């Protein structure tokens, strides 16, 4: 873990900010009668640290390197050459003009902004061979060597994907998504094999999957990068998770549309083991969680031991999905200081608005989660869910530590229930406060088990104050 990341984590996880003045301010705020107010005072400082990268004024059109926007010509080499030329010149913009460009894996380099003009579409090949050789990546919280994510970078500084164009993964029921379930070939055996390798401590470079295996890659994955910007683009139909920053620092995801409602595990944006992340003014229509904050899984999560911290979700719209703002299920490295506000969530197929999920195999912690000014017109399950028995696992050696969750000014229209809160016997959910919130038409009783410090203040359910 580099020095910058350690310094930021010292502030985020340990409660001591790098700047001494800010640290003294935090100490003064700790005496406030409203701990949530002290917590929210962190947001301006976090936001000031999150600065999008800037790039030189040079432009490198991919058409100068042999790309043709006819939708049929394979342009992988043209992207590779344009990115190499841009980075070698000291950085700038790799320009994708209007047109449809068929390509395999695109790997970004230092100081490169991949910019899609309006009318430009990246259409990714459906042939798995176009995502070889394998790269160092993560699959559901476990490191391995696998098919390259469609747009990928590892260990890069100052990388961006911007513009008004479309990034189309072209996954469908006959390509990539069919690996998620029977009939074979499916990902099930490979998931078990990868989990076993991680538990046994097999080195990552020996966990080689890719050709002959069936673990789906992400559409966009930026790995161990610093100063990341994704802005303006529309992404759709990923093999699985759409946008997946991993072990990154200083990430801005702004005005992005994720339109991928039909695919299995088609999460919208999943920052994992990242520090200082801003997700703002985005729209999500997904086949799984809209935003899911993660931190590695089980033995591999304990080996890497890298949390997510300082994640801001501001003014987003969530439509279809399993959860609007979600934490987990991969929580092993720990998640803290998550703030979400001014978000609108509604769909008959949006199952939950605020969701935390983990289990006694994951371990780690989830704490200091602050949510306010959320509008939920309709949800298909509980509006707020905190479940420590994810995947119906109630016992295990690594109980997660979940608590210090504050929700205020949430207004929900119709849903089966307001709350589903399921702790573990002997390891309860510790401290959930809901304030000044209204749940208008809830059809069923709440589920609340193994919870301590559950406080409702000025909360109304079905017209009655509770």
From TrEMBL:
<dbReference type="Pfam" id="PF00295">
    <property type="entry name" value="Glyco_hydro_28"/>
</dbReference>
<dbReference type="InterPro" id="IPR051801">
    <property type="entry name" value="GH28_Enzymes"/>
</dbReference>
<keyword id="KW-0378">Hydrolase</keyword>
<dbReference type="InterPro" id="IPR011050">
    <property type="entry name" value="Pectin_lyase_fold/virulence"/>
</dbReference>
<dbReference type="GO" id="GO:0005975">
    <property type="term" value="P:carbohydrate metabolic process"/>
</dbReference>
<feature type="signal peptide">
    <location>
        <begin position="1"/>
        <end position="27"/>
    </location>
</feature>
<dbReference type="GO" id="GO:0004650">
    <property type="term" value="F:polygalacturonase activity"/>
</dbReference>
<keyword id="KW-0326">Glycosidase</keyword>
<dbReference type="InterPro" id="IPR000743">
    <property type="entry name" value="Glyco_hydro_28"/>
</dbReference>
<dbReference type="InterPro" id="IPR006311">
    <property type="entry name" value="TAT_signal"/>
</dbReference>
<keyword id="KW-0732">Signal</keyword>
<comment type="similarity">
    <text>Belongs to the glycosyl hydrolase 28 family.</text>
</comment>
<protein>
    <submittedName>
        <fullName>Glycoside hydrolase family 28 protein</fullName>
    </submittedName>
</protein>
<dbReference type="InterPro" id="IPR006626">
    <property type="entry name" value="PbH1"/>
</dbReference>
<dbReference type="InterPro" id="IPR012334">
    <property type="entry name" value="Pectin_lyas_fold"/>
</dbReference>
């Amino acid at each position: 873990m580099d020095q910058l990341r350690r310094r930021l984590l010292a502030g985020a996880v340990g409660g001591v900010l790098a700047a001494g003045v800010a640290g003294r301010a935090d100490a003064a705020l700790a005496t406030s009668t409203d701990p949530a107010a002290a917590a929210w005072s962190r947001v301006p400082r976090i936001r000031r640290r999150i600065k999008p990268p800037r790039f030189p004024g040079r432009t490198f059109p991919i058409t100068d390197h042999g790309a043709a926007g006819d939708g049929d010509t394979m342009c992988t080499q043209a992207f590779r050459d344009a990115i190499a030329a841009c980075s070698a010149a000291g950085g700038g913009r790799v320009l994708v003009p209007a047109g449809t460009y068929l390509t395999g894996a695109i790997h970004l380099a230092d100081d490169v902004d991949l910019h899609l003009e309006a009318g430009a579409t990246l259409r990714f090949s459906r042939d798995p061979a176009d995502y070889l050789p394998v790269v160092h990546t993560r699959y559901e919280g476990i490191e391995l060597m696998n098919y390259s994510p469609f747009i990928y970078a590892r260990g890069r500084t100052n990388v961006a994907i911007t513009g008004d164009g479309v990034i189309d993964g072209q996954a469908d029921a006959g390509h990539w998504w069919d690996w998620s379930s029977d009939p074979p070939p499916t990902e099930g055996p490979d998931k078990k094999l990868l989990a076993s390798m991680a538990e046994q401590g097999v080195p990552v470079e020996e966990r080689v999957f890719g050709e002959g295996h069936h673990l789906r890659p992400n559409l966009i994955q930026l790995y161990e990068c610093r100063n990341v910007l994704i802005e303006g683009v529309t992404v759709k139909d990923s093999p699985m998770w759409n946008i997946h920053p991993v072990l990154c620092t200083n990430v801005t995801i702004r005005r992005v549309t994720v339109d991928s409602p039909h695919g299995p595990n088609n999460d919208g944006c999943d920052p994992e083991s990242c520090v200082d992340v801003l997700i703002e003014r985005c729209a999500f229509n997904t086949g799984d969680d809209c935003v899911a904050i993660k931190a590695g899984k089980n033995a591999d999560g304990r080996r890497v031991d890298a949390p997510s911290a300082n994640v801001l979700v501001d003014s987003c719209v969530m439509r279809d999905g399993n959860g609007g703002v979600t934490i987990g299920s991969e929580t092993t490295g720990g998640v803290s200081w998550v703030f979400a506000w001014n978000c609108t969530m509604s769909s008959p197929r949006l199952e939950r608005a605020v969701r935390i999920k983990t289990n006694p195999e994951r371990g780690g912690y989830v704490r200091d989660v602050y949510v306010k000014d959320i509008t939920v017109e309709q949800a298909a399950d509980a509006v707020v869910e905190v479940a420590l028995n994810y995947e119906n696992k109630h016992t295990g050696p690594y109980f997660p530590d979940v608590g210090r969750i504050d929700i205020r000014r949430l207004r929900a229209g119709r849903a089966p229930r307001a709350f589903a809160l399921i702790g573990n016997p002997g390891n309860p959910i510790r401290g959930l406060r809901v304030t000044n919130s209204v749940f208008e038409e809830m059809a069923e009783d709440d589920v609340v088990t193994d919870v301590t410090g559950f406080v409702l203040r000025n909360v109304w359910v079905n017209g009655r104050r509770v």
